[in-house]
Amino acid sequence: MKLFSTYIKEMKIAARGFYFYVEIIFAVILLVILLVAVKEESVSKEAEYLYNDIPSKITTYLIEKDINEGKARIAEPTEFKMKPVTFEITNQETSEVTLYEFEEEKTITVETLEQLDPETGKLTRTAYIIDNEEDMIRLSYSEGKIGATVIMSEEGELTYKYYLQGYETDRLVDLLYILHNESGEVLTTEMDNQVVRKLGFEQQLNNRENLLPMFIVFTGSLMGFFIVMAYIFLDKGEGVIKAFAVTPSAVWKYLISKMGVIMTTTIISSLVITIPVMGARINYLLFLVFLIVTTFASSSLGLLVASFFDDMVKAFGIMYGLIIALMIPAFSFYIPSFDPMWMRILPTYPMLQGYKEILLKNGDTGYVLIYSLVFLVSGLVLFALANIKFKKTLTL
Amino acid sequence: MISVKNLSHIYSNNDKLAINDISFEITKGETFGFLGPSGAGKSTTQGILTGLLKLQKGNVHVAGYNMNKVDNKRFNKIGVSFEQSNVYSKLTAKENLEFYRKLFDVPTREPEELIKLVGLEGKENDRAGSFSKGMKHRLTFARSMINNPELWFLDEPTTGLDPTIAATIKEIINGQKAKGVTTFLTTHNMYIADELCDRVAFIIDGQIKLIDTPKNLKLLYGKKLVDIEFIDNNEVKKETLKLIDDNDKKRMYEIINKYKIQTMHSKEATLEEIFIQVTGRGLI
């Protein structure tokens, strides 16, 4: 009863204040952007640089075959200006290092092949076919994209030599290895030893849906971190926490009621964005569970940080640092090949991945549930620490 | 109602004791004044007694609760009025009190009744944010009574209030005393303490210098004085004479017989003067 009346009081205060509407208005703005400015259709900017070290007749045959099957179309040739550059390449198998030095600027025009989804006819990626391997390597390095040399073995089978940037995930490297390994025996062995996850989820989510995880994380789950701090600092300014502390009601109820307000606004704002975009295609129960536990964890972190400072100005430095750190996983989310291990310890990484799994048609529910538990436990620990700190700092 | 034995407290950011081995008892129904300048240890003591500061050393019992053990239920018996008003500015006066009353497990007073009592009638539905400092202070004061406290902590209850409102607050405090409420009054205003308190304690540098009734203190430390203004050779002169000094007595008779008296006032020493005499320090 005390908790409920405290929650109602907090809702009244929030509804008469500014922060309550910030989150919801922001969500509406993002929704408008999603629906108006972001087209559903995916315009792929994925590119690959290929050097075909195979007879030209075979190259022509393969291209024509893809065109006839609706898998590709010839586009206008593309011109690339390559600047002087020096770099090294390490052979992953032999560890042999090769130095490449290009002192002159060079302009090349290459054949461009647009690869299409045979079912929808939509552009999925662009392949640039370069007529010498050195230029392909140089271009791949300069553009920061994967390059490949296609070779025909003595047995007449196509094999691939990939040039990667070095920061690609092990998953991607393993997948490339498995995809083009011509030995069925090795393939089976490798398949048994690998956990293969779907990399190309952009093939299943359109552009609009693809932006949802980031919007939900930053306007929903993470917004709780800032808004709860703002509410606490408002109360600290008015001294009302002390007034609450001299009642038979426990401080944790006060803190939970703050979270209740955050949960309410987060659920509203996240659904405002999600329902119009996803309709009834996702499991909303799972979505709400994940939303609530992630918001609980982030607002507990906000409570803990707020317990150390008297006002927003003093807390600004740490707040700013945290938001920058927590935004970093967005890079990995949109550039799957950039996925260093250290980034995975940032809480926004599993948040983004979790929402992605929820939005996918055949997403990994296990992943979502495991991280729901992780966020719940972390949230409880952070909340307990915040509660202890608040009780200690309630001096007259 | 309150028992404090050998209480000491130190803050982590200071190596000096904020409270240094103090002991006192307050009986039920007593109004006890805790007087001292800023930084003397008044608020720290009140913080420990209300449980907002952790008891570090000593034995403290408040309203039947041992302060070594944390039990929020004790606040059903306690009311606290803070020096700095702390009400929700976005809630109305009535909403502030309505919310607060729901936090208690005991019968509570009607918000309208308390609002009327502190002179805020007609402002029930105004948001506290629109109130003046004095009005907020009165609302904070009213809130401290909502659970019919047996033990009432008042921190500078009349500071910043105009004389009329201050008189109303003093009247309410006396009314509560008549009902048997025990009051722990923290102030540096000796006039308020003199008017309201059964006993006062002088605290300075974390130590209690003395505890007694205001009347006894005046008898012990006060010097009965008479201020006389008289006309001598068409000139108004003023003298202050001690009634306990024989020479001064003679001089007073002389003045009365010889000169035309303009004004004559007997004067008692104030608590403030006694405080300075006892502690060697002022109250600011």
Provide a descriptive summary of the structure in words:
The complex is a heterodimer of chains A (396) and B (284). Residues 182-188 and 190-203 of chain A have low confidence and may be disordered. With 396 residues, chain A is an alpha/beta fold. Chain A has 15 helices and 8 strands. The longest helix of chain A has 28 residues, at 251-278. The radius of gyration of chain A is 27 Å and the shape is elongated. In chain A, the strands form 2 sheets. A 6-stranded mixed β-sheet of chain A has the order 2-5-6-1-7-8, with helices on both faces. Chain A has a two-stranded antiparallel ribbon with strand order 3-4. In chain A, a hairpin with a 6-residue loop joins strand 5 (106-116) and strand 6 (123-130). Chain A has 2 domains: 2-38 and 206-392, no CATH class; 47-168, no CATH class. Chain B has 2 domains: 2-213, 3-Layer(aba) Sandwich (Rossmann fold); 223-267. Chain B is 31% helix and 29% strand. In chain B, strand 1 (2-10) and strand 2 form a beta hairpin. In chain B, helix 7 (214-221) packs across helix 9. Chain A binds chain B through residues 1-2, 5-6, 9, 12-13, 16-17, 238-240, 242-250, 392, 394-396, and chain B through 43-44, 46-47, 50-54, 72-76, 78, 80, 82, 84-91, 95, 99-100, 102-105, 127, 140, 143, 155.
Q: Characterize the largest beta sheet of chain A: strand count, sense, and whether it forms a barrel.
A: 6 strands, mixed
The domain count of chain A comes to: 2
Structural class of chain B: alpha/beta
In oligomeric terms, what are we looking at?
A: heterodimer
Q: Unreliable stretches of chain A, pLDDT < 50, 5 or more residues?
A: 182-188, 190-203
Looking across the biggest beta sheet of chain B, what order are the strands in?
A: 6-7-8-3-9-10
**Low-pLDDT regions of chain B:** none
In angstroms, what separates the terminal alpha carbons of chain B?
A: 30 Å
Q: Report Rg of chain B.
A: 23 Å
Helix content of chain B: 25-40%
CATH architecture verdict of the largest domain in chain B: 3-Layer(aba) Sandwich
Order of helices and strands of chain A: HHEHEEEEEHEEHHHHHHHHHHH
Which value, in Å, is the CA radius of gyration of chain A?
27 Å
Helix segment tally of chain B: 9
Shape summary of chain B: globular
Strand arrangement, major sheet of chain A:
2-5-6-1-7-8
**How helix-rich are the residues of chain A, as a percent range?**
55-70%
- What number of structural domains do the residues of chain B give? 2
| Largest sheet data of chain B | 6 strands, mixed
Overall geometry of chain A comes to elongated
